[in-house]
Amino acid sequence: MPTLSLDPIDRRILEAVQANGRITNQELADQVGLSPSPCLRRVRQLEGEGVIARYVALVNPDALGLSVTAFVRVRLDQQDDRHLDAFEAAISQFPEVMECYLMTGEADYQLRILVRSLTEFEDFLRYRLTRVAGVANVTTSFALRPVIYKTALPTLDQPSI
Q1: What is the 8-class DSSP label of residue 137?
Q2: For the whole model, what pTM was predicted?
Q3: Domain spans of the chain, in order of start
Q4: At what angle do helices 36-48 and 25-32 cross, to 10 degrees?
Q5: C-alpha closest to that of 99 among 109, 90, 89
Q6: pLDDT per residue over 138-152, tens digit each?
Q7: What is the fold of 61-142?
Q8: Mean pLDDT score, 45-71
């Protein structure tokens, strides 16, 4: 997907809707300095071009008792397309898997797992993840606490360092 050229108003719109997905069009227009009709047109254009992919509510995991975050690196015994596709299809069925990345380096995949307890993680690992066909090795690290957690993407051009 080619990078879309965003002007400063588009960037302000993106910052505002990332901070509050329930913002009204009137509030958004006031915040970014447009009248409501042009503001709504820009939002619809950003949605239509796939820049705004969807709107979600962020739920506090602790409020649901999901206090254990594990980062799991998975190595498969074979890395051809068939095995990669099969692994991805299998883990997409596990609600504990919050994120999954195909990686370079020593592991084929990096997963972020969210569960209620270490016992629940052990059950997930022993009875589900390691039983996925093709899994050769699993390494886990547990998060002690989040230091930085962002959901909003940066919208301004940042100087290179």
Answers
A1: E
A2: 0.86
A3: 8-48, 61-142
A4: 100
A5: 109
A6: 999 999 999 999 999
A7: Alpha-Beta Plaits (3.30.70)
A8: 96
